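Q: A reviewer asked whether we had any structural model of the full assembly, not just the individual parts. We don't, so I'm hoping you can provide one. Inputs are below.
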Amino acid sequence: MSSDSFQRQLVQRTNTLNSSIDNATLTILSRFQDILDIAINEGKDKYTVAPEVYQIECHTVSMVRAVEQLLDVSRQIKSYWLTNSLSTSFPTVDYSEPDLEKVKRTLTKLQNHLLEVSLIEPEASETTEAPTVSDT
Amino acid sequence: MAEEANKDADISSLSLSLDPEIIGGQNNFLENNLQQIFQKIIQERGPFRDLKEEDLQKELQKESIKDESSAKSSETENVLEFATLDSKRNVNDTEVESMDSQAYKKELIEQIMIAQTECSLALDMTSLLLSKFKENSIETISPFLKSTVPPSSLQFSRSQPPESKESDATLAKCWKEKSLTSSCKFLFEAKERLTSVVETEHEYYTELVKVKEASWPLFNSQGSNHLSVQYSCLGGISLGLGLIRMKPESKSFEVQSSLLYSQAALKISILNKDRDEIGSSTWSWPSQNCNSVLLKDIYKLQEILFEMDIWNSLLQEAQSCGNQGVNFTGDEILVPISDDHVVRITLETSSKNTESGFTEDKKSNEDTSTNFVTIKQEKELLKCLCDTLNAIAHILFLKHCRKSDRRSQQPELYMAIDANAPLILRPLIFYYNLNQESLEFQRWLKQRDISFKFMPNYPWEKAKDFLELENSLSINRLSISWRIMVSNFEPAIFIQHTPTLHGTDKSVWRCKDQYSSNQFSSLKNVCQYIEHHINSLSRRSKKTE
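A: Here is a predicted structure for the entire assembly that you could use as a starting point for your response.
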């Protein structure tokens, strides 16, 4: 994905989330205001009050749904951060130098099992060159 | 059709009789009154609508024949024909009349019933309306209505809405109060529920942050609100995705995966000629220092998948090592290492610890202390060997997983071999064969009392970290130096052995003495060369003497 398209997608996602937040917030405020407006019974007969009872219940449910929508937005933001942010490192196997040296010694020991091993002598290379000089 | 029928009728009526008197009489009818003629025709032949042209034509033909025969026969036939026509007409009329009358009666009865119903209803309503003003009208009310509606109940009055009461305000207030109370209760319940949801999600995402801080990659799951973790990012070849979700029973988090086994570990055993296990090693990963249960589960899944992947890789490689004596089934891989011993590689999937180690016989109890020490040392050595083989297998598999490193550092190998082919068994076999070949050479030299110096130069000895160690184990070519002292007075023979893991030159022996430098492809040739050299020296010494 190119950086431009990624930026456009990021902007679009941001706008969508902001729009969701604004809508949910507006819903909560407007529904609360509506409940307060119809809470008073002065100058109303029972035939007018009856439908307002159901309106209050509907507004209450709408407020709760708006809050749930805000929680969903929060969940999306968290998931987006967890899944899309790049990691600077990767899980590694915990090795240490003593273990490395131990492994090396063990490998050498097993490889030289039942063998008579001599240390490499620096003089051996010099001795090797001597026959060449004599040949000359 | 009607006009034609009328014409035919006229013709037939004219041809009824050929007597002059009758013809004259008919002419008088025509002149006098045409209606009478029609009436006569109808009386004789029935309605015009029943007349058919074919029938009339037949009659004309018959009459022409009758005229030729006799008047009596013609009269008789005419009578019969009339009778036949009359009978037909009667039958048709009866059928038509009966059908029409039945349908008409049925329709008429339905209409009468509807009218009766309407009249009865009108009478009831009218009587009920007049019952207040006229006593006799009660008699005309139907019994059903009389029993259900009292007399004089239908009046000329309008209905008014009920008057408002003082309790209406109280009722409305109670309704509103109840509504507000229930809404308040609903909000508090929602608050409790959502608070619980937030707390749960807080714990969930806190655990996920720990997973992310441990550098495990996380992904969104399609069709689910939960996230998935890829637990094979380091050493596995498989995808290794697990869904992170909460257990409803214990309120803890788990990784839901689809692995076949709940526990897996590579096990390497050494078997003797009787197929008894004399040494074994079951791989175990070091414990992770983390407080999160979820992370522990992820590390465990990683280990299980790693072991399963390495086992699959070994099986894959065993298919191409048949020429080196490797046998395999779905459960085990057998690598012969000598005439009497076999290395067995299996995947241990049960939780039971089957690491048995050295198998002791009953006779071992009767051995002396020296034998006991020897057996113990042998046991430890076998254990060490199995552990090392297990470690090397894992290290080589890690290197196999790092494809990019292998491709970049050793391009010639990438071109020579399949990049996806694992390389685990072949290095192990290679180093074992190297040990055996060196051992054989030393034994041969000792048998002939030839002094030597064996100076191996293993690639891993210079490794500074584990990455270099991994690379060193897969180096294609080694270099081992030998120094053969054939005589105390003559210079030594220098031999450089360069075994090759891949390629056509499996093993190259370069021998150099004071007179020449030779190259051999097998140990046998090297031994022949040394013998030849010794013989040459002996012959030269004899000549000198």
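A: Points you may want to mention in the reply: Residues 71-130 of chain B form the longest helix (60 residues). Chain B touches chain A through 73 residues (CB under 8 Å).
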